[in-house]
Amino acid sequence: MELKSKIAEAAEIVIRTHGLAKATTKEIARTAGCSEGSLYNHFKSKDDLYLHILRGQLKNFMQTLMSLKDLIGKDTVRSNLEKVARAGLADYYQSMPLISSIFSEPGLLAQHREGFTARNEGPHRANEAVESYLLEEQRIGRVSEFVKPRSAADMLLGSCYQYAFQLNFLGRPLSDEEQDEYVHRVLDTLFAGIGND
């Protein structure tokens, strides 16, 4: 494993164990098995390191969202949204402690916002991707014309995010069984009004 990845992995462990405010570069370097100076060969600051970790937290979810455009008209709308819900719930659950810690650091949050703006990214892009997918499925008649695609996207992703928050808060693991049950329950409710397939 290259040193940059090793440092990022160590930083994630330290942040999860001690929290962002108490995660020192000295402790990160010790956990990574390198010198403190080595951190600065790969990252400008502890904040830069944190943002690097945070950007990598939702990779599976982002890949699933990017694949939606290739699923238009294929399989069922429900099975396609099930993939989104599973990936979203899993990545939200895993990343929740890191995502939440950014709100305790106003400067870091501002830096993160600036980076998102510069890259034309942000949490709202996930909802827009699901909305765009549903609009296309609606256009070809696989989603009811009465459905508001953005509201359906907000309900699906918002419920996954909120459930991930609850599980983290309560200290409960996200088991495969729990994930299956939750995703099916949400989609049963959503599809009571969403669609034609």
TrEMBL record:
Gene3D superfamilies: Homeodomain-like, Tetracycline Repressor, domain 2. GO terms for molecular function: DNA-binding transcription factor activity; transcription cis-regulatory region binding. It comes from the Bacteria. Residues 24-43 bind DNA. The keyword Transcription regulation applies. This is TetR/AcrR family transcriptional regulator. It comes from Paenibacillus lautus. InterPro entries: Homeodomain-like_sf, HTH-type_TetR-like_transc_reg, HTH_TetR. Pfam families: TetR_N. Residues 1-61 form the HTH tetR-type domain. Keywords: DNA-binding, Transcription, Transcription regulation.
